[in-house]
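Closing statement on the LW54GNZ2 sub-project.
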Amino acid sequence: MVAHTRAATAPMPADPALAGARILVVEARYYEALADELLAGALAVIEAFAAHATVVTVPGALEIPAAVAILADEYDAVVALGCVIRGETGHYDIVAGESARALMDLSVQRRLPLGNGILTVETEAQALERARVAEMNKGGGAAEAALGVLALKRAAEAARPR
Ligand SMILES: Nc1c(NC[C@H](O)[C@H](O)[C@H](O)CO)[nH]c(=O)[nH]c1=O
Ligand SMILES: CC(=O)[C@@H](O)COP(=O)(O)O
């Protein structure tokens, strides 16, 4: 017999397991206009699931992991939002790579459902089309990912023998 647990990417808004879930949104506002779009997309998804969002703002993507580490114990899932655009130096690799690595470590080590909506792009045009709610809506996608893993976690905990 094959047991198929559908994971993570497209939870249903009607999922009662997610209603009231406490979602921490940590946004880096290094690029304000992009941040507005990412946040709008994420909040619309969280609202559609009747979950509850708390938004915390940090200056740049490098500060997101520390904010998550400090605050995550009070929340069911986390959505990280930001944008890193390549410049002239190797700094891009540090900001993009280290923020992603630290978030992945936090998510796995703390069994923390986390959607990574930190764009890592070459140009502002690439960032805009990915951030815009009306286009690729990556903020909304990150929120769906976090909620999907939260639904998976709750289902796994409910199925675990006591
Ligand atoms: N260049 C970008 C940054 N850089 C700033 C860092 O994230 C950090 O705030 C600073 O090094 C102080 O610790 N941040 C972004 O979010 N996006 C960038 O493109
Ligand atoms: C992502 C970055 O770090 C970038 O914005 C910084 O630009 P630069 O490498 O030109 O200092």
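Residues 20-152 form a domain with the Rossmann fold fold (CATH 3.40.50.960). With this model delivered, the sub-project is considered complete and its resources will be redirected to Aim 3.
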